[in-house]
Amino acid sequence: MHTMHINKRRALFISLFITLLSLCVATTAQAFEAFQPLPEQPPIPADNRMSAAKAALGQQLFFDPRLSKTKTLSCNSCHNVMAGGTNGLATSVGASGKSGTRSAPTLWNAGFHTILFRDGRALSLEQAITEHLTSPTEMAMDDGAEAEQRIAASAGYRRVFEQVFGGDGALNSINISKALATYIRTLNTPNGPFDRYLNGDSSAISDTAVRGFERFIETGCASCHFWVNLAGPVPGLAFQMGEGFYELFPNYVGSRYDELYQLTKDIGRYLVTGVETDRRMWRVPTLRNVALTAPYFHNGRVKTLDEAVRVMAKVELGKELTQPQVDELVAFLQTLTGEFPLQTMPRLPQ
């Protein structure tokens, strides 16, 4: 069921890992190796090194509505970093007035993803940002040149781009995307209760959450949601940037949830590749901070976390959960809320 754009050796590694994980006894001690605390910083690409000045510039751009066609939306409008990194809506309306069909995913910890968008069509943060700027259901710019011209109209931005990137021509659409990506790579939430638990603090999570963690393994959730971002393999171990980890959703078709939440209407990655085996395939999403990112699933149809757990168990794993089992899983998922670095509205260049 996993569509993995990786070589055979890496595919074998993942296949064996998932097999071993599914066979292991549901104890936290045996499960530790499948989960790692979130690092302070995600992998950084060689062609877009981090700097405080670049991240600060990216933060200004992130909050600047001048990057939208109508000057009414900023990146933060749909990915509110003052909260869980989303806008709390099932779908969003772009600057052109067109509504999207998918829920805006959180940008917290997005730097740990090896592919972007729910269908995995972007191979890097920089590429995803470029598409965001020109999508009619998002910022709706005609092209990168229009975004460049809009920002270049500001003398303040011109000075900052020259300082950060150096030389004439520093303010261009490529560097706009690089600055935004640099800022997004600072949006990390380490040291949550589950991270502290993995680091040996047995008091960091409740007994109910421990049972939920064990049930998470036992039920099969960890077949897809593991490693540091609970979204599959970390970059450098089994996947490189641009290589995707996908899962069929829904896996068990025919439950009442299909119609109730329109789970099969959007056929996912197939719309990108046209490959039949990609029909209803989706990038495995992170579960970090999942308690703060309602509504749930690609179309935002499910409003609460406990209902999302119930639906996933049925349509993905073919299992019916009791309410106490749901409560245990929710208690565990709530321990995935990390420590959020303070975000403030920056002063925008004139």
Question: If you had to describe this structure to a student in words, what would you say it looks like?
Answer:
It contains 14 helices and two strands; from the N terminus they run H-H-H-H-H-H-H-H-H-H-E-H-H-E-H-H. It has 350 residues and is mainly α. Strands 1-2 form a two-stranded antiparallel sheet. The longest helix has 16 residues, at 8-23. The termini are far apart.
Short précis:
The protein has helices spanning 8-23, 28-31, 52-62, 75-78, 125-134, 144-152, 155-165, 173-184, 193-198, 207-219, 256-260, 270-273, 305-317, 323-334; strands spanning 246-248, 281-283. By secondary structure, the chain is mainly α.
Q: Characteristics of this structure?
A:
350 residues, mainly alpha, 37% helix, globular
Computed Rg: 20 Å
Lateral arrangement of strands in the main beta sheet: 1-2
SSE series: HHHHHHHHHHEHHEHH
Percent of residues in β-strands: under 5%
Compute the average pLDDT. 91
Are there runs of 5+ residues with pLDDT below 50, and where?
1-17
- Beta strands, count: 2
Instruction: Tell the overall outline.
Output: globular
Distance between the termini: 51 Å
Oligomer: single chain
- Structural classification: mainly alpha
Chart the SSEs and their pairings.
Layout: H1 8-23, H2 28-31, H3 52-62, H4 75-78, H5 125-134, H6 144-152, H7 155-165, H8 173-184, H9 193-198, H10 207-219, E1 246-248, H11 256-260, H12 270-273, E2 281-283, H13 305-317, H14 323-334
Antiparallel strand pairs: 1-2
Helix pairs in contact: 3-8, 5-8, 10-14, 13-14
